[in-house]
Design a protein that fits this description.
This protein is an alpha+beta fold and about 80 residues long. It has two helices and five strands, in the order βαββββα. It has helices spanning about 10-15, 65-75; strands at about 5, 30-35, 45-50, 50-55, 60-65. Strands 1, 2, 3, 4 and 5 form a five-stranded mixed β-sheet that branches. A hairpin with a 7-residue loop joins β2 and β3 (about 45-50). The N and C termini lie far apart (about 30 Å).
């Protein structure tokens, strides 16, 4: 499964109806995005790469705020 990509015109047209699930901003052409899990309902969604953290334990991307809350919950 592809977890990281660059926004092309097709993805731009598809994803900008909702925007980034993490920061709610629109995507721009050529921007790096990752498929990440987060605190939203449903499965993984495409979000801006800078809004995600790669979790080596699960080999997947997690939305930054969700990842931080998981780390602090285990302290």
């Amino acid at each position: 499964m592809v977890q990281k990509t660059i926004i092309d015109l097709e993805k731009l047209n598809t994803l900008n109806s909702e925007g980034c699930a993490a920061c709610h901003q629109k995507f721009t052409l050529g921007e790096p995005v990752v498929l990440a899990c987060g605190a939203w309902e449903g499965g993984p969604k495409w979000i801006h790469e800078n809004e995600a953290v790669f979790d080596r334990r699960t080999s997947s991307y997690v939305e930054r705020r969700c990842y931080d809350s998981q780390i602090h919950a285990t302290d």
